[in-house]
Structures are given as structure tokens and as C-alpha cells.
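Box S1 | Example of a co-folding query
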Amino acid sequence: MKGAPGSAAARSLRDKLAALGLARDIDLALHFPLRYEDETRVVRIADAPDGAAVQLEVKVLAAEVEVRGRRQLRVLCADAGGEIELRFFNFYPSNLKQLVPGAQLRVFGELRHGWNGLEMVHPRYKAVADGAALPDTLTPVYPTTAGLSQARLRQEIEAALARVDLSDTLPAADRAGLHLMEFAQAVHALHRPLPGETLENLDLRLKPARARVAFDELLAQQMSLRLAYAERRARRAPQLAAPGERVAALCAALPFRLTAAQQRVWQTIAADLMLPYPMQRLLQGDVGSGKTVLAALAALQAVESGWQAAIMAPTEILAEQHYRKLAGWLTPLGMQVAWLSGSQSARQKQAARAQLAGGAAHIAVGTHALLEQGIAFERLALAVVDEQHRFGVRQRLVLREKGDSATAPHLLMMSATPIPRTLAMSYYADLDLSVLDELPPGRRPVLTKLVSAARRDDVIARVRAACAEGRQAYWVCPLIEESEALQLQTALETHERLAAELPELGIGLLHGRLKADEKSAVMGEFAAGALHVLVATTVVEVGVDVPNASLMVIEHAERFGLAQLHQLRGRVGRGASASVCVLMYAQPLSEAARARLKVIYENSDGFEIARQDLQLRGPGEFIGSRQSGEPLLRFADLERDAGLLDAARDCAVRLLDGAPEVVAAHLARWMRGRDAFLKA
Ligand code: ADP
Ligand code: MG
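Box S1 (continued) | Returned holo structure for adenosine-5'-diphosphate
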């Protein structure tokens, strides 16, 4: 029974719906079935195939709550030809009231052979009268939440469908041009299978309906991201002068020449910075493609025009490495580079703060510490975020707010986790993209070897040989994600064991629990060649750059993700000597681990690895913290619907240009009020 509006029952229903993101009628209409089940037929227990989802019609013979072991409700049932036990591990008094001897039930679930014969665990059931008619259509099954039954949710959706306006937001011409089904028709098709339809022909019939919904979703995403882009572009930014003498001086002082790709991207960035609105650029470049120097050049351009720049990196090690590099490049040119990190003393921070606020420091390099409230810039023109996927939308927002009141700083985001094209086109449609698609010359490809953990001695011999030739090695400890304490212990043990196995070598240890100055001391010794081997947890994953290291050993490589393995492998192959990455694995390998190792073994191109990673895992992992509050696509699948994505982008551009009222209506339908998150 439905409670009166405002009653406790109505409120609790509303809360449950809200937990599913269903506030308005249109949200309910867009809450599509996960799958469909066939309740149009009843199967006899004796005829039911093992493991199949079937519907039975049974009478309850006995029911009891078992308290030994795991508490459960066991219900013995029978039809004319057989018996079956229903088992419930979560149940309510209402279940006990319904499941009494003599009750007639239709149960739907997966049938299997358990210890005590045939059973179904947590079947859906309903009490029926003898001879009650069977439904004549397939039953939609919706994503739901605890305490909200399918039946209740279905009712709510039906009611919403009866009230809601499903008129098409797409102009007829666009729809026809794209051969898309009408919106209302698609929505109804998805919720309401036709009488007599089977699961097989349903799938085929729903194809155009699914395509229409996927298209609309992609279109909404394109519209909202492009609007966010346009909104940011409408703000004013410091308009910088063209790169001048000091930029030229830095280029001349570098020990290398920029690659053609670096030249090209640098020109794009320099031109962006000369415009009166904020740059919003994502620079993608594979591991080692040389992004840092571009950040330095851009920062220098800002300083030349009398402004400041900030460069933020996600880890202390990486930020410090940037600081050293930038200070090394820029101090000789008369620049003041300030360093800010979470582990600094209050006095050090205070000094850096004063330098930045007073304009004495031209460039700030640091970790999240840059975001702290007390950090203000006199004239911030450019913010660079390295390894941007490690930061969230909110953090970007905060950094943006560090500009002066009249302008928003230019934003350059850098990422070494290549993003597949479809993903970039969809989730990153609010950014301009640049790609460094060339590695500096002289890099030799890293040779990847898969070695069973049983051959650890061979690996040790390889480390010994490399170090005897004056090179250095990383040894990455097994990843233990579940427990930081265990991770630490593993790191200590690995270090101890290696020190015993390789007594003639200097072996350092780097892990997340070290204090910042300890980390930086170890890193410094390794960079200076005073340590031969660096045993490390994944703290070395991002950005660390020690060209003399030519051997990377990863223990239990099967536990790491593809992006992580690619990043780790990218730590070597940076100098002139041939590099090797040894992936040690332990048997037995899971299917998924085997697939990952195969991808990393066969590919060196980060973009290809990312594409295959997307196929293996779906998009959620890629967008990381970016997804917080931001709509992940619910219906569109970027691989399957790549064609629709192109069409949606073109359509969004067209409508934003010529039909703002259509855009508004479409976004109102799809965005559930989440567009606030898209402003960052
Ligand atoms: P990433 O893109 O992974 O951040 P880095 O900026 O750390 O790469 O650069 C990797 C290494 O390549 C650094 O040692 C850097 O000094 C060097 N490097 C950058 N550009 C060039 C170039 N054009 N020629 C040679 N070496 C370069
Ligand atoms: Mg980098």
C-alpha cells in the first residue's frame, strides 16, 4: 500500500529510490532493466536443467530457521514430481509469515544440486492462488537496492511511465538523419517486452532501442562537457607575451634538442597562453616522452610576462624531482623556484608562502600542499598538474581559484596514462588534447621477460651482472593492496633478503612509510649512483627518472594492473644502454592475470596497452578520481558504441550552435542535476 505523501512509508520509499538516483519521473523512466527473465512458463522440478534460471510452482511442505552455523531460513517445497529446498540467508519476519506449510508459490531462481539435493538460494518468489494466470510477457529485472522489491520498483516505474513526458528532445531531422528510433518508443520497448516474445528475439528487437538510449546518453555527456568548456573559456585569463629570450636561453641550455612532437606541442601551448581566456589542455604523452620540460618552458613564459606559475605533482618523490629539475634549469636564468610539500616544517612553509604571496618566488613546485588555504599567489598565470589522473575534480577547482580575482589561471594537465581515443573523446570532451607521440631519440625499447618465481636465482644473477657493468636496478616489491602493514613488512623482508643474496651491492629501500627526507635521501643516493639496487614499493611508479637504471624487476607482477606495469617498466629504458624489465609471476595465474601479462609482454605502446586495458576492465578505472560525482556512462559502451560517439559529438556541436533550447531540454532530461560537477 502506498503511504500518503509525507508519511513515513512514503518517505522511506523515496529514500530508497533516491539511493538509486531516482528522484523524478524521468529518472524512473530512464532506469532500465538489467536483464529480462522468463516467467511466462512454469517448469516441473523433475524437468528443470541444473544451473538454469527457471520458474517453478510449488507448495511449501516445511520451513525452519536454522541457527547452527550461518543463520538461514530453509524452506522445503514440492510440486507433483519432485522436492526442492529454498534457502535464504537474509530474511524478514514478513518472509516467515508467507513461507508457511501449505502456501502455494511461484519461485524464480537458479536451480542447483546442493548437499541435500536440489536447492535454490535466494529465489524470488510470490504467493499465488491455484491456477493463477501466468504473465504473457518476459519480466524486466531492474537494478535495485536493499528493501526495495522488484515488484514495488516495477510498479513505481509503470506509474512514472504513465505520467512522464517522453516527447523527443531530438529534432525530427536529426533523428531521421541518424536513423534513430523515437525516444518514447525506445523507452517503452526497453521496459515492456511484447507478449509471446522470447529472450532470444527480444535481444534482437531491443537493439535499436538500446542504440537510441546510448546515443542520447552520449549526446548529453557531449553537451554538458562542451558547455563546461565554453563556460570556462568565457572567463578571462592573463594574456601572456610570446616566449622571449629566457625561453630561448633555456632551450639552448638543455642537454638535448626538443623532439618534433615536443616542438609541436610547445608551440600549441605557447599560443594558448597568449590568448585572453584560460587554457584547458590535457597533455598526454607516454612514459618518458618528455613532458616535464614543456611544463618548465610554459612556466618560464609566464614568468617572462611578469606572472607566476605553479606545478603540482601527486607524490612527494615526484614533486621533489620536478623541483630539482626545474631549479636546475631555471635558477641559472635568474628565476626563484619555491618548494612546498606536506612534510615541511611550519617555518619552511611559512617562508615559501611569503615568497609566493609577495611575488619574490616566480615558480612554485609541490604536492597537494600547494592547495592549502594559506597558499596564495601574487599573480598566478599558469597551473600545471602532473599525473592529473591522481587528482580529483575538486583539487583542480581549488588550484584554479588561486588566480587573482579578475582572472583564472591557464591550466595544463599532464598524464602518462594514455587514454584510449574513445575515452578521450567522451569523458575528456571538455579539454583540448595534445599528444606527445614520439619518444626522445636514442631510447632503446625495453626488453620484457616473463619469468616464473621459481627462477628467482636467475633473476638475482641478472641483477648482479647488470650492476657489475656499472648499471643500476629497481626491484619492485609484491603489491599487497589489502594491508598497508603487510605491504611494509613485505618491503622490509624483500630488502633484507636481497641484501643477503647480493652482499657485494649497495641496496636501498624506498617505501611509503618513510619520512619525506628519508625518501629523498634514498632517492638522491640512487640517482647519484651510490646505491646499486633500489628496492621499492610502487612509490616509484610515477615519474621517477634515473637514466642509469636499466633493469626493472617486478615481483608478483600478476598482482599489478596494466597501467601500473607500464608505468613501472617506463622507469627503465631512459639511458643509452639496453634495458630489461623482468616480470616475475607466481603460479597458478588467474585468467585475468594471464591476460594482463600477455598484453604487457606483447606491447610497448602505452596507447595500445590502454586500449586493451579498457577492453579488459571497462572505463571506471581510467577516470579514477575524475569520476567522483561525474556521470559514468550507464548505457553506452564506448567500444560497442564508438560509432554513436562520433555522431553524438557532431550532433552536440550542431545543437549547441543552433538550438540552445534543445540542449537545455536534453540536459534536463539526462543530467539529474549533476552538471555542477562539470565546472572544474
Ligand atoms: P615524462 O613524459 O614521462 O614525464 P620526463 O619529462 O621525465 O618524461 O622525461 C624523461 C627523460 O627524458 C628525462 O630525463 C628528460 O630530461 C629526458 N628528455 C626529455 N626530452 C628529451 C629530448 N628531446 N631528448 C632527449 N632527452 C629528453
Ligand atoms: Mg612525468
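The CA atoms of residues 212 and 457 lie 58 Å apart. The first strand starts at residue 35 and ends at 37.
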